[in-house]
Amino acid sequence: MKLNRNRIKYILIIAMLIDHIAWAFVPTFSVLGQILHFIGRLTGPSMAVLLAEGFQYTKDRKKYAVRLFIFALISWPAFSLFESGKWPELGQGVIYSLFIAYMVIWMWDSLKIHKALKIMLVVLGCMLSMIGDWACFAVLWAFFSYIYREDPKSKWTAFSIVAAIEVFLSMGMSAISPNGNPLRSLFQIGVFMVPFLLIFVYNGEKGSKAAIHKWFFYIFYPLHLVALYLIKAFLLPALIK
Which residues of 203-216 are buried (b: 16+ CB within 10 A; e: fewer)? Predict the structure, then answer.
């Protein structure tokens, strides 16, 4: 039985939670850490693909953009605390990257300018996304999913090329880091699960229009980051004492 978009999103939220628990408490190079992060690779890329679909069908593009922008701001301190224990810092969470991706798609779809200028704006969007989680990869996954929305073969080919670049760069960075080992980032190959999930499990239907399905991810994202930070920074040290 295939699942609608709401149910797919809850799977992605669970995968994200698993991934973030691993970042907080499990050594990355351990077998368990690799498995948990492998599962977590589902969320960011899938959300980018679903964002392109959401753009296509939304009735109010401006309201959608404002919602992404507001929750990107709300999530900023939560993501910063989770990542480094400090705020403010420049780094942004995945909602910021999705906001940039959304604006890139909107620009491409609506601006009546030369294509070369549009490509330059896509590059600019990728540059602006570099401070966000998943960075330019989220932008490109969303962008190609939108422009190839009527051509599934090209859509998933482009997705896979971007995914291969992401895996190669991640493993390369792991290799050249102090005491580096490219296998430390082996879990990144989990991004290749995304086409299987969205082709063979997702039925293309939205599901219930209840408000909980619309807002849950936006609310859960910053809350779970703060909760994991508090557990790691305060609860666990108190228990250990």
Answer: eeeeeeeeeebeee
**Bridge partner list, 132:** 92
CB 104, CB 96: distance < 8 Å: no
Q: Max Cα separation, the chain?
A: 64
Residues ≥6 apart with Cβ < 8 Å to 45:
134, 137, 138, 141, 159, 163, 191, 194
The number of distinct structural domains making up the chain is 1
The mean pLDDT value for 13-27 works out to 98
Measure the CA–CA gap between 216 and 196, rounded to whole angstroms: 24
Q: Give the domain extent around 173.
A: 5-240
Q: Which two tokens stand for residue 109?
A: 């779809």
Tens of pLDDT, residue by residue over 176-212, are 988 889 999 999 999 999 999 999 999 999 999 999 9
